[in-house]
Amino acid sequence: MSENEHKAGHTFSALIFSLYHMTVGNLFFAFVMGISFALLTIYTGSIVPAIFFHFLVNEIMDHHAFPGKGY
After folding, report:
1. How many CA atoms, within 13 angstroms, populate the side-chain half-sphere of residue 13?
2. Dihedral angle computed from the Cα positions of residues 10, 12, 13 and 14, in that order, rounded to the nearest 10 degrees
3. Extended strands (E) in 1-71
4. Whole-structure pTM over 0.70, yes or no?
5. With bands split at pLDDT 50, 70 and 90, how would you rate the model's confidence at 8?
6. How far apart are CA 67 and CA 6, in angstroms?
7. pLDDT of residue 50
8. Does residue 36 contact residue 13 with C-beta atoms inside 8 Å?
């Protein structure tokens, strides 16, 4: 695969990721996170770090958005 095909694949993957997390205010953030997770997966050669960081971001956002909920 050429470099341009890889970039197109990463961009498409990030777009699908952001559409899955669809809210108007969250679209750009989800797109950037999708690109970051794709690059992390390529850099490490494993999807496990991206899964871990997705979990970590979800936890941080939950505690930031809903402080005092106890979960």
Report:
1. 16
2. 90
3. none
4. no
5. confident
6. 40
7. 92
8. no
Instruction: Determine the Cα–Cα distance for residues 30 and 28; give it in Å rounded to an integer.
Output: 5
Query: What 3-state DSSP class applies to 29?
Result: helix
Cα 62 off chain centre by: 15
Gap between the Cα atoms of 36 and 54, Å rounded: 10
**Chain mean position to CA 36:** 6
Contact 15, 34 (CB under 8 A): yes
User: Do you know the residue count of the chain?
Assistant: 71
| 18-59 pLDDT per residue, tens | 777 666 677 788 888 888 998 898 899 998 999 999 899 888
35, exposed or middle or buried, with CB in 10 Å at 0-12, 13-18, 19+? middle
Q: For residues 65 and 20, what is the distance between their CA atoms, to the nearest angstrom?
A: 20
